Amino acid sequence: MIAGRSGGSAPRPAIATMTPMAKLTIDLREGFDDDEVVVRVADREVFRGRVSTRMQLGLAHRVETDVVGPATVTVALGGATRSLEVDPEATPFVGADAGGGDLALRPQGEPFRYM
Amino acid sequence: MDETNDSSARVVALREAHDREERWIPWRRLEVSGLYAHRVRPVPPRPIPIPTPQPLPVRPTEEELGWLDEDEARDVAAALEGEAGLPIPGRPIPGRPIPIPWFSREEIRLDVDGRYPQRTISGTSYRFRRPPIHWVASLRPIRRNLWVGGVWYRDPNDSAFPYTRVIVRAQPSLYVHQRQVTVLFAGGGASSRQVTYRFRSRFFHPVELEFDHVEDADPVLEIETCAHPNRPSSLPCETLSVSDVFERAGFRATVGSDNAIPAQDAGPNTTWSDAEMHDAMQTYWSRFADRPQWALWTLFARLHDLGTGLGGVMFDDIGPNHRQGTAVFTGSFISQAPGSDPSPAAWVARMRFWTACHEMGHAFNLAHSWQKHLGSPWIPLSSEAEARSFMNYPYRVQGGESAFFADFDFRFSDQELLFMRHAPYRFVQQGNADWFDEHGFEQAGLAPSSDYRLEIGVDRDASRGRAAFEFLEPVVLQLRLRNLSDRSAVLDASTLLRQERLTVIVKRAGAPARQWRPHARYCLAPRSRTLDPGASMLESLFVSVSPEGWLLAEPGTYDVQVALELDGQQVVSNRLALRVEPPRDAQRFEQERIAQDYFTEEVGRVLAFDGTRCAPLADANATLRDVADRLADSRAAVHAQVALAMPETKPHRVLRIDDRETAEFVLEDGEPAQVDALEKVFAERRDLAETLGHVDLSYYTDRVSHALVARGEVERATRCAQQVRQTLQDRAAPEELVAEVDRSLAALTPEAAAE
C-alpha cells in the first residue's frame, strides 16, 4: 500500500496462506524381529521394510517425515495394525513397540531416549 | 566434575589409583574368592571300572568325606542328610566305562566373599582337541572355609564331567603362593575326584579398557559418588572410577591410553554413524584385532547421527567379532539435567559415568534389565524391570530417575554378576568366536617351555608373509623337530612319521578350522635316534587332503598349525600362513575343468599314498594323467607325474582274480615309461624342490635312481641323482638330506645293477 494516498486504501491483494510443516519422528522400538512393517502417515505410506530391534538400544528403525497439522499415524505389523491421532506440534515423537503379535503406540513431546 | 581436566592426566590418575589399591590392603589377604588353577600332566584316557548302577545315594560316601577332618565330615554329612535332590539329579551311567577325563588344565572361580559375593563356584576344564567343559555350582556354607553345593550348569553336558555336587574347602593364607582350594567332585554315578587348585588372582578374568575421546566431547571416567545429594544414605563417599566398577564385578581392569580424535573423523555433519565409529575404533584402538580378547574400546563423542536422543551405544555388532567397541555421546540428553535438579553439574557427570558403564556392560554381553528373558540367555533369566543396575535405564523404573538414583549403589545386579563371573567365558569375552578359530591350541594349556621346538615350513619364499601355492598344487610341509636342551635326547627315529601323534589344524580365513588326519597309521618297530643339542629331525607332511576331503583346495588364505605329542607333552609349532592362488588366466578353463575331477577323495587318496595301480582307482590315475598332459607347466603336474611314476619304480604286487574267481597276488614289473617321464621332469624343472619339498625330493630321487639302476641304466641314475643333489646344495637344503642323496649315489653301482 502506498502511503499518503488520500481517500480510501487500495484493496489488498490476496495473500496465499501457507500452513507450516512439522517434523514427525516415528521410532519402531522394542519387540521387532525381522518383521515386515508398514508405516503410514495421513494415508501416505512413509516406510515399508523388514526391521529388527537392536537389543543394545531398544530401537529397530526410525522414520522421519514432514506432516501438516494433526495426522493419523498407522503402523502395521503382520496382522496387527494400530493407529494414533498425533498433533506434531505437541507430540512430534511416536514410539511403536511390538509384542505378542500386537503393537502399542505412544506419543510424547520429547525424543525417546536410548542408551 | 571439572570438565576441562586434561584427559591424559585423567588416565594417569586412574592408573595410579589402581596401583595404590593393589598394594597393601590387609583384609584382602584373608579373602578366599578368586581364580585358582590346576595344571594336569596329560595321561592317555583309560577306562575305569563302572560302578554297579544304583540309585544316587543321598548320604555322601566315605570316599567323599574321608579327606575332611572329623568335625568337617560330620558337618558335611549333616548338611547333605536327606537332601531333597539336586537341580541336576545324578544318575549312574550304565553299560560303559567312564574314562578319566584328559584335562590338561583346570581352573575354578570361587565367589564366596569380597564384593557382591554370589556364593558360587565355577570351573573350566581344558581338554586337548575338544572344547573345554564349563560347570557352575551354588554353594552353602558348612563352616568356615567349607562349602557344599550342587552343580546346576554344565557346558557341554557330556559324560566327561558327570558330577552333580561339590565339596569345597579353602585354605586361606597371608602368602598368596600358599593359598589353595580343594574341591571334591562327586555324584552322577562316577567315582569322586579330588583336585587341589592354587591361587592365581583375586579377579576372575582380566580386561583391558581403553578410552578415547573426540576433541569436542567431555569424557568422564570417574566421579565423586556423593557429589549429588540424591543417593542412598548408605552409599560410601569415594572417588569411583570406571575401572573400579569392573574390578568390583570381578575383572582385573587395566586402563589403556587416551587419544584425542579429530572431530572431522565424524564427517561433515559432525555427528557419528556406526560405520564412522567402527573406522575410528580400527584406527585409534591400540588393541584392535579381529579376534576374541578381554579388551574393549570406549569412545566419548558429542552426538550420534540419531541426535540428542541417543546417550550411548555399543555399536560393534557387525563383522565376525562383536562387542569390542562402545560410545558415549556427551552432547546428548545425558548432559541435560532436569531444570529442577539441585546439582546439575553432578547430575551430568553421574549420567555420563553411568552411561559409560552401561555401554561397557553391553560389551560384556549384558542385556538391558527388562530384556533378560529375551533372545537366548545362557540360563533361563527373568527380567529385572526395577533393578538398580547399570543395565537398567534410570527413567524406566517406577518413580523415574530420582527413585532410581536414590537406591543405586553403582553396581551390576547379582544376576549380571553371576553371568560376568561364572558363565562360559566365550559368552562374556569381547569378540569371542568358536573354539580354535582364534584360540589355536591356547585352550589346551600347553607347557610354556619345552625341550623341543617343532617348526613347520615350506621350501619357498613367502610373499606378503604368506607362502603362495598354485591352484591344484598339493601342499607339502616340512616338519623339523629340534632339540633345544643342552643334552642329547634319545627319541624314536620315527617320531615325526607317527602321524597319529600329530594334531594338524588347517584353517581357511572366514571358515571353521578343520583337522587333518592321516590316511593310514603305520606300525613301526621302534628305532632309537640320538638328537644332540641343537640337532633336529626332519620329515614331510602332505597336508592338502584328509580322508574326509580336501583341506587346501579353494583359492584363499590359510593358516596351518601342528602339535606333536611327545613325552606326555604337546609340542606346538609355529603358525604357518599360506595362500592358494586362483587359476591362472592362461589356463583357467582347463584348470577349472580338471578341478572337478581332481578335488575328489580318490585323487586325494592316490596322492597321499604316492600313487596306485589299483583298478578301482583307475579314474583317479586318469585325472592325474590329464594334469600331467594338459597342465604340463604347472606344479600340480610334478606331483601328478610323481604319483604316476612311483608305483612303477619297482615290481608291484597286484591282486588278480581270474574267471573262476580264484584270487592270487602277482608281482608285475613297473612300467618304464612312467619312470622315464619322471626322470625327464627331474632334469628339466627348476621348481622341483619348491613344490615337492627337500625331504620328498630326496626320497623320490632315491626311488627313481634305483629304478633306473634295476634296468641297468646306472649312468642315467647317477646323472639324475647328481642333478638333484646339486639342486639341494644350491638351495642350502639341510645337510642330512644332501647326505641321503650321497648315500643313494654311492649305492648306484654296476654291482648293484647286477644284483
List the SSEs and their pairings:
The complex is a heterodimer of chains A (115) and B (755).
Chain A: E1 22-28, E2 35-41, E3 44-51, E4 61-67, E5 71-77, E6 80-86, E7 93-99, E8 102-108
Parallel strand pairs in A: 1-7
Antiparallel strand pairs in A: 1-4, 2-3, 2-5, 5-6, 7-8
Chain B: H1 7-22, E1 34-39, E2 47-48, H2 62-65, H3 70-80, E3 98-99, E4 103-111, E5 120-127, E6 130-138, E7 140-143, E8 146-155, E9 165-171, E10 180-186, E11 193-201, E12 205-214, E13 222-224, E14 239-241, H4 242-248, E15 251-255, E16 260-261, H5 274-284, E17 295-301, E18 312-313, E19 325-329, H6 344-363, H7 400-405, H8 414-422, H9 425-428, E20 452-457, E21 462-463, E22 466-469, E23 476-483, E24 489-492, E25 502-508, E26 514-516, E27 528-531, E28 536-542, E29 545-546, E30 549-550, E31 556-566, E32 569-572, E33 576-580, H10 588-598, H11 601-608, H12 618-630, H13 635-645, E34 652-657, E35 663-668, H14 672-684, H15 688-692, H16 694-710, H17 714-730, H18 735-746, H19 750-754
Helix pairs in contact in B: 10-12, 12-13, 13-14, 14-16, 16-17, 16-18, 17-18
Helix content of chain B: 25-40%
| Strand percent estimate of chain A | over 45%
- Unreliable stretches of chain B, pLDDT < 50, 5 or more residues? 1-6, 42-58, 83-101, 433-449
Structural class of chain B: alpha+beta
Give a structural overview:
The complex is a heterodimer of chains A (115) and B (755). By secondary structure, chain A is mainly β. Helices cover 0% and strands 50% of the residues of chain A. In chain A, strand 2 (35-41) and strand 3 form a beta hairpin. Chain A is globular. Chain B has 755 residues and is an alpha+beta fold. Chain B has 19 helices and 35 strands. Chain B has an eight-stranded antiparallel β-barrel with strand order 1-4-5-6-8-9-10-11. Mean pLDDT of chain B is 82; it is low at 1-6, 42-58, 83-101 and 433-449.
